[in-house]
Structure to design on (140 residues):
């Protein structure tokens, strides 16, 4: 949500850009840890001779996708904030000389970051839903 707000209020990009990068990084690390603990639980259950339901297998596969989307989101937010920081420091004349169309570059980075954030949000929601479904339906 902050990424969308920063797109329409560039002043907030300067104020909160690094904060959003930090949150995206924490989310990415959280996705890695969540998938890791899920894989350990799956291995433990298999070692105990328990069968793994299709819903739980889907949940595990979707957890891998969450890691990918969260990583892409983090990289794109970082690139957007770094580009905006560099553009401010270099000045518009130098930025135009190097990037030709810095406004277009900034807009594309912002759009890709917001798209990746939306994909990550959808992926996390679906993964969480399947995880809850496997618990409440008794892991059928």
């Amino acid at each position: 949500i902050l990424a969308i707000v920063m797109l329409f209020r560039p002043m907030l990009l300067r104020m909160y850009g690094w904060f959003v990068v930090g949150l995206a990084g924490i989310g990415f690390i959280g996705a890695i840890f969540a998938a890791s603990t899920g894989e350990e639980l799956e291995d433990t259950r298999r070692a105990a001779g328990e069968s793994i339901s299709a819903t739980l297998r889907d949940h595990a596969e979707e957890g891998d996708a969450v890691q990918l989307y969260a990583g892409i989101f983090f990289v794109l937010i970082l690139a957007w904030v770094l580009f905006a920081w560099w553009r401010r420091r270099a000045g518009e004349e130098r930025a135009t000389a190097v990037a030709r169309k810095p406004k277009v570059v900034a807009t594309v980075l912002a759009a890709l970051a917001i798209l990746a954030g939306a994909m990550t949000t959808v992926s996390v929601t679906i993964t969480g839903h399947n995880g809850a479904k496997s618990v409440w339906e008794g892991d059928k």
In short: The two ends are 36 Å apart (CA to CA). The mean pLDDT is 90. The chain is about 90% helix and 0% strand.
